[in-house]
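Handout, section 3.2

Students often ask what a structure token actually looks like in practice. Rather than define it abstractly, here is a full record for CinA-like protein. The first block is the sequence as you would receive it.
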Amino acid sequence: MNIEIITIGDEILIGQVVDTNSAWMGTELNKVGFEVSRITSISDDREAIAGALHESLSRVPCVLMTGGLGPTRDDITKHVLCDFFNTRLVFNEQVYSDVETLLKGRVGHINELNRSQAMVPEGCTVIRNPVGTAPVMWFERDGGVVVSMPGVPSEMKHAMIHEVIGRLQQRFHTDHILHKTVHIFQIPEAVLAEMLSDWEDAIPPFIKVAYLPQPGRIRLRLTARGSDAGVMQRAINQAVDALQPIVGRYIFGYDDDSIEKRLGEMLVARGQTLATAESCTGGAIGAAITSVPGSSAYYNGGVVAYGNEVKHEVLGVSTNDLNIYGAVSEPVVSAMARGVQRLMRTHWGVATSGVAGPSGGTPEKPVGTVWIAVCNPQGQVNAQKFAFGPFRDRTVLRSVDMALMMLMNELLDDK
């Protein structure tokens, strides 16, 4: 069954606040068989809110709204809902008691603005909010359902988890929806689609396939919808198994797996260790690796060698290479990888050196130029040059991704 989400707030439209609510709601709703068919963000404007609500209800039987339920003048959602459902605000003793309990000890007294939170549209079902002052309001009319929730993420999530999702499941019938995501690297999207053409033809028609590309990798998402969850799960499992002879080497994980998690599993299985030497990435590779619990079992540490003195004195990069080739070069990044491997006494060494920008580029080495090196247990180095473009944040992120993918590829090749 389809649901639409309406998020309310000028702060979303001007980019001051990122709408993370909708993404989280979409994920949780999909888990229980609801499909979000549209997300609309609108300003704190009466006509905009009423218009969006009218349009959404003309398409779907259920609309979830967040935002505009605070006590200040710009919070007008309750007033719009009163007009929309032809009702009025009335005082709710239970909500007021909840507000008093929540604010006791935080403020000296309950003022009129706080008291206004207990004014709710007459006729709606009020759902108590134990973590905030604005209650959730559930409306029904002509078979349609509108649920208005606070825009504060923690309050919205509490309401969804403890009340709203369960009530929606009781109110509406849904099919089962099952997902399986396969993480694939080193194959371009168009090439992968060609490789999987026969595989797509062979899988059951109730399984939909989506290609979700990211730099250097693709998430292949399989989605099945139907009434028999067991049949669907078996079909998805068989489809995933059928991928192995085609692209098995390039699969690094499933669902919530990450490349850094998979790398850790591979290193632990081999009893091997890793160290990093980072210049332009400034420790971001180490941060990604240590984001995985238990990474101390295989990650010995890293050196942020931003300056040439550190490259020379700590990692052993020769001043001759630094002077002749410059810090952003194959000889230097290779020496960094060998140096940190030796310094940390690890099996593997990974190094980066580049021009992240926005300044510092030259015609020979423009902003976005990055060298990445991986040194294997035999002391052999694979160093590659990349051009990631003029944006600093993107260059750092792409460098981290590529360094991890290069390491994974080397691990797969190293027997």
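Discussion prompt for tutorial groups: The longest helix spans residues 392-413. How would you have guessed this from the sequence alone?
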